[in-house]
Amino acid sequence: MKSGWNLLVALAAVLCYASVLTGPFLWDDRVLILENSYIKGVQPAWAPFMTDFARLALAEWEISPFYRPLTLLSFRLDALVWGFSPFGFHLTNLLAHLGCSLAVMHLGNRLFDSPRAGLAAGLLFAVHPVHTESVSWISGRTDVLACLFGLGALLLALRGTTASALGSALALALALLAKESTVVIPVLSAAALALRRTPRGVAFRVLGLQFLALGAVLALRHQALDGLVPTLDLAEGLGNRILLAPRFFLEYLGLLAMPFWLSIERHLALQAVSPLSMAAGWVVALTWAGLLAWTARRAPAVCFSLAWIPLALIPVLNLVPLPQPLAERFLYLPSVGFCLLLAALLADRHVRILALIVLVWAAATVARNQVWNDEGRFWQAAVAARPESQAARLALGIHHLENGRLDQAESHLLESIRLAPRTAAGYHYLAQLRLAQRSLAGAEQAYRDGMAAGARPEELLHRQFGNLAESTGDLPTALERYLAGPPSAALEYNAGVVLGRLQRWDEAALHFERALELDPFRHQARHNLLVALVESGDQARTRGDLAGARKRYRYVLQTGHQFPEVQARAAQGLAEISP
After folding, report:
1. How far apart are CA 574 and CA 170, in angstroms?
2. Do 512 and 528 touch, CB atoms closer than 8 A?
3. How far is it, in rounded angstroms, from Cα 508 to Cα 291?
4. Residue 524 pLDDT more than 60?
5. DSSP letter for each residue of 365-387
6. Who's near 144: CB < 8 A, 6+ residues apart?
7. pLDDT tens-digit readout, 277-315
8. CA dihedral sign, ordered 324, 328, 329, 335
9. Radius of gyration of the chain (CA)
10. Residue 39 in contact with residue 72, Cβ under 8 Å?
11. Does an H or E element contain 468, and which?
């Protein structure tokens, strides 16, 4: 392979995505990164290996089916190196995408025995516009990291040595710890080994080690999430989801072939699927199966590329229900097969067509990244593409609110509530708008309206309603509002804080304990519990309950090793009452 071709693929990736290096944190980045206590270094480094992806940032969520500790660890490392400058986070995404593009090039060269086909595949992958959601959005890193390690597992599997087989298993484990969808890598590895006519013994060794790695990660996942797919009823509606799967497949194929009308709210297009479009999906799926059968012996490399796409799509065809049933970022790994397919068909005889596709896709990627580079333009584009999207309306309203454009913010926030009257965030930001308009009564009414509508998460409304009273100094009302909410670590914690401010330390300690029972990772609750016990011990001394004071001080000394300053206070108190 010509060494300069590596540079060419890398250059294509960099030129397409250089503009987003100056882009901001967008969309879920605020919650998953900027407001995440783990990314800030409060939680221990191993914390994401013990719970699900979202819960460290969104403690009040139910356990989600996402287990991605490696992605969270990469965000924490970025924060350690760069602070919370988005440039460093974007740079990591770009470097990972560059690595994936080079891996696709090497995979194409290996599978097709053609450096030219490998170069074509790498270039197509580097510039494909559908990748912008994964690369340009910092939180989209899950797909890029997973693909990077997944392709590494595949390339190592094809080497056939014992050392590479071990490396392949390790790379697969890392891919799975980045995102669940790489569960298909062992199947793709088996197909690639068969294509390369790998000796059976070598193939069994590679695949055996990969399945051991898969089992180990699934065991970790089961332990962390208390089940492989928690909160999901896999039986309910399964027949309907199977019927719809080919329609999802058709939608994804359209995005791979014509990636020019992109939207972060892509899934809304499938809310009402007509029988005709469902039938079209089945026709395409059956035609695809026929192509697989026809090329199996005539063109095995083409067959492999054709098979890659549906195999890599299986985890995201909504057979297992997903919170967002369709998204462009889900195509990052499946697009490898599409790029390999185009390379196999065009690299040798249709170079001009291939060059034209690369140029058109690169231009489309650069244009799309202008949207990702500016928050206002990003949300305006989202609303323009999907005016019926509550999430886009809400986000644009928040953007206008934060930039002081209150009239524009109000229209979008009210529309977001109209579109989704049972979504709590709309009422919360409407309350913030009312406060910006200097209407405390209007803010309180927004929270009451949300609770009356049964908006969820219910905890959010009660917490913010209590915060509103607390900000005005009305602590009894704040406490009442916190305690009126559903069981929640945040509400228990806030109640404990208010009780502490009211000098009711015994009660405060009880609420901090409940917060920790509901969320063991709430580090500040553990600190405040120990402070409350020391303060409670001081109060016990004042009223002459020396035995109660000793009990509290000793508990802090025994359990407060993470907080030496609190331990020092407890030691001093114990010394003062010791004979």
Report:
1. 51
2. yes
3. 67
4. yes
5. HHHHHHHHT-HHHHHHHHHHH-T
6. 93, 96, 97, 100, 134, 135, 332
7. 889 989 999 999 999 999 998 999 999 999 999 999 999
8. positive
9. 27
10. yes
11. helix 458-471
Measure the CA–CA gap between 365 and 375, rounded to whole angstroms: 17
Model-level pTM?
Answer: 0.82
Cα–Cα dist 412/418, whole Å? 10
Whether residue 575 contacts residue 550, with contact meaning beta carbons closer than 8 Å, is answered with no
Q: What angle do CA 106, 111, 115 make, to 5 degrees?
A: 50
Q: Tokens for 299?
A: 């063109």
CB atoms < 10 A from the CB of 209, how many? 20
Rounded to whole angstroms, how far apart are CA atoms 100 and 94? Answer: 10
Confidence of residue 60 (pLDDT cuts 50, 70, 90): very low
Q: DSSP E strands: which ranges in 190-266?
A: none
Start-to-end CA span in the chain (Å): 82
What is the tens place of the pLDDT at every residue in 78-108?
Answer: 999 999 999 999 999 999 999 999 999 999 9
With contact defined as beta carbons under 8 Å apart, do 35 and 146 qualify? no
- pLDDT tens-digit map of 548-559: 888 999 999 998
Handedness of CA 356, 361, 367, 369 (dihedral sign): negative
C-alpha distances (whole Å) from 534 to each of 542, 547, 572 are: 13, 13, 10
Residue 218 contacts by C-beta under 8 Å, 6 or more apart in sequence? Answer: 228
**What amino acid is encoded at 177 in this protein?**
L
C-alpha distances in Å from residue 20, one per residue of 91, 125, 373:
9, 18, 5
CA distances from 229 to 149, 303, 330, 351, 552 (A): 23, 32, 18, 46, 41
Nearest to 118 by CA among 130, 109, 129, 127: 109
What are the CB-based long-range contacts (under 8 Å, 24+) for 187-191? 187/311, 188/154, 188/308, 188/311, 188/312, 189/153, 189/154, 189/157, 191/304, 191/307, 191/308, 191/311
- Residues 469, 487: Cα–Cα separation, whole Å: 20
- Structural tokens at position 380: 């305006």
Residue indicated by tokens 């040595």: 161
Residue whose C-alpha is closest to residue 174's, from 198, 148, 208: 148
Burial grade of 343 (CB within 10 A; 0-12, 13-18, 19 or more): buried
In 3D space, the residue among 456, 462, 413, 460 whose CA is nearest the CA of residue 436 turns out to be: 413
Angle at CA of residue 559, ends 558 and 564, nearest 5°: 90
Q: What is the pLDDT of residue 115?
A: 87
Residue ranges and CATH numbers for the domains of the chain are: 19-372 (no CATH), 389-482 (1.25.40.10), 487-579 (1.25.40.10)
Query: What are phi and psi for residue 541, nearest 5 degrees?
Result: -60, -40
